[in-house]
UniProtKB/TrEMBL annotation:
Keywords: Membrane, Transmembrane, Transmembrane helix, Transport
Organism: Companilactobacillus mishanensis
Family according to the record: Belongs to the cation diffusion facilitator (CDF) transporter (TC 2.A.4) family.
Protein name: Cation transporter
Domain Cation efflux protein transmembrane: 112-242
Length: 328
């Protein structure tokens, strides 16, 4: 077996290991998200029930906020299931040839499904936010018969705050452990939900003891605006990911890292994009024209290893161009 064959076998094995590790992480993330759904459903039911008994628009808005969490998480779970279904004979309803089912390019496309389904959730969140804002705004024009919320509403918000803290901890811990952007995004979401539930509890208490029925409706609009901002933010992140946008500063750091190799005269260009959580990089470098194939091969391996270890790059494609200044 020659050196080149050994290299391809080694590269294929390495990429399969990384790919399988990413699939395993997504599977574990999916299991964690089911816990999210269970707790979100419980919070939504408790808050909505107590908002009806306690006459609180703010608590009702917070219940819809958590309902958006249920919907978005279920959609994301469906996306993760598709992204990790490597034995499936179709791709979103389209047939796949048996020989291509474990194809690396196809798996990278599967990873993108996580982002696509997250994008869909952003539209759901925006629609729920608009509904809360409109209903709460209408309620502010009918304060004559409005009753201040009672302490049962405050109890509902308190329970929601405690449960959301549990959700935030689980998402943050598992997200860091699995390097899952889905779980880390869910952790940011749940931390925001902790703040809204806590704010709802304080609002209900103030509105109850000071008899300020307008405050409850005003805060529900604020919660709606917060949900709207969250949905727009999720949409922005997913759209940028699907449009192959990567932070220019991050790309400059990778360029600088590659340019530190003595054999590299200049990094002509560096292009990168995400497939789900997977970062893929294409680099164009200029080197002396008299370098041997073996020297260039070793340089490529060093660059790949450095980008993998320092920037968690899944795959690097390097194009070598001879430096015209050194051509005699």
């Amino acid at each position: 077996m020659n050196t080149l064959t050994k290299h391809f076998i080694k590269e294929t094995r390495r990429q399969n290991i990384i790919q399988q590790r990413e699939i395993n992480n997504l599977i574990h993330a999916k299991s964690s998200l089911w816990i999210n759904v269970s707790i979100y459903v419980l919070i939504t039911v408790i808050e909505y029930w107590l908002s009806m008994i306690g006459h609180s628009q703010a608590l009702r808005a917070d219940a819809f906020n958590n309902l958006s969490g249920v919907i978005s998480t279920v959609i994301l779970i469906i996306g993760l299931a598709e992204a990790t279904n490597t034995d499936d004979d179709d791709f979103i309803g389209k047939p796949i040839a048996k020989k291509d089912r474990n194809n690396e390019a196809l798996q990278l496309s599967r990873f993108r499904l996580e982002t696509i389904f997250t994008l869909i959730t952003s539209f759901v969140i925006v629609l729920i936010a608009l509904q809360i804002i409109v209903q709460s705004g209408i309620g502010l024009f009918h304060l004559k018969d409005k009753v201040s919320p009672n302490l049962l509403s405050a109890l509902g918000a308190f329970i929601a705050t405690i449960l959301m803290l549990v959700v935030w901890f689980l998402n943050h811990h598992n997200g860091k452990k699995l390097h899952s952007t889905s779980l880390l995004a869910a952790a940011r979401d749940s931390l925001g939900d902790v703040v809204t539930s806590l704010g709802t509890m304080i609002t209900v208490l103030i509105s109850h003891f000071l008899n300020l029925p307008w405050l409850d409706g005003t805060v529900s609009i604020a919660i709606g605006l917060f949900i709207l901002w969250s949905g727009i933010k999720i949409f922005q992140e997913c759209a940028l990911n699907l449009a192959d946008y990567v932070d220019p500063e991050f790309e400059n750091e990778m360029k600088k890292s590659v340019s530190e190799f003595k054999m590299v005269h200049k990094v002509l260009d560096l292009r990168s994009h995400y497939s789900g959580n997977i970062l893929v990089v294409d680099i164009f470098i200029m080197v002396a024209p008299d370098k041997t194939a073996l020297e260039l091969y070793k340089l490529n391996k060093h660059i790949e290893n450095k980008l993998r270890n320092n920037f968690n790059v899944y795959d690097t494609t390097i194009t070598v161009i001879p430096d015209p200044k050194d051509i005699k």
